[in-house]
Design goal:
263 residues, alpha/beta, Rossmann fold, 2 domains, 7-stranded parallel beta sheet, 7 strands, 48% helix, globular
Length: 263
């Protein structure tokens, strides 16, 4: 299937590893021009080099902490200077720290809000004028299945991420007439570095191997396994494509069926 992404300009946040890296690679394989952003410049530049070597695509690496307003401006400004426009935005920043309500002060809540909500709003606000001008755009945000089924011990994520979905749904109704779609992707257990670290820590506490703990973590997932970042990337790339031109204002979980809710 031709996804219609050849020469489209894409910005992907959190792209040095995990879901963001897999998405950037997926877009590059479709012939897109891709800006990748993440905090660690060495890791980001290494990822850019690997994607270029794998695909031959034009990759721009912009080291950035997207929780900061100046950084979101820099990512968009450098993309416009290099490529002239933006067709697709994948707002992805990873999650705030784990913990319960009693562990979180105002600073923790404000940092989580800046990381997940404000970063998404700022990026979308900067790219929307260009999408409107060309009458084509795809706005995507990567949140969490916790939007549909809160996860114990993730009070910051459970509190902030649903606000992004509410904003995105409302925005989808405002910009649809410009041929711009707005959708949210909700990963379940995906084998990223963050999940690997958590499983490693649990395995050490339980005196188990990594594989034993990983298998136990997947016990409640109908597919009986955790997901691969590439499986997330496949959904992200599809939603950004011409093939998904009538998919708008939705939140799609990629979780192996673990969320029990109907909606």
């Amino acid at each position: 299937m031709d996804l219609g992404l050849q020469d489209k300009v894409v910005i992907v946040g959190g792209a040095s590893k995990g879901i963001g890296r897999a998405a950037a690679l997926g877009f590059a394989r479709e012939g897109a021009k891709v800006t990748i952003a993440a905090r660690d410049p060495d890791q980001l530049n290494a990822t850019a080099a690997e994607i270029r070597q794998d695909t031959g695509a034009d990759i721009l690496a912009v080291p950035s902490d997207l929780s900061q307003a100046e950084a979101t401006d820099r990512v968009v400004d450098e993309t416009l200077a290099r490529f002239g426009t933006v067709h697709v935005l994948v707002a992805n920043t990873g999650g705030p720290p784990m913990g319960g309500f009693d562990n979180m002060d105002d600073a923790a809540w404000e940092a989580a809000f800046a990381l997940n909500f404000l970063s998404t709003v700022r990026l979308m606000r900067r790219v929307l004028p260009h999408m409107k001008q060309q009458n084509w755009g795809r706005l995507l945000s990567v949140m969490s299945m916790s939007v549909k089924e809160p996860i114990d011990g993730l009070i910051l994520s459970n509190g902030v991420r649903p606000a992004v979905v509410g904003m995105a749904k409302t925005l989808s109704r405002e910009v649809g007439s410009h041929n711009i779609t707005v959708n949210t992707v909700l990963p379940g257990l995906i084998l990223t570095d963050r999940l690997r670290s958590g499983i490693t820590a649990r395995a050490e506490r339980a005196g188990q191997s990594f594989d034993q703990t990983l298998e136990a973590s997947a016990a409640n997932i109908p597919l009986k396994r955790v997901g691969d970042p590439q499986e997330m990337a496949n959904v992200i790339v599809f939603l950004a494509s011409e093939a998904a031109s009538y998919v708008n204002g939705v939140s799609i979980q990629v979780d192996g069926g673990v969320v029990r809710g109907l909606l």
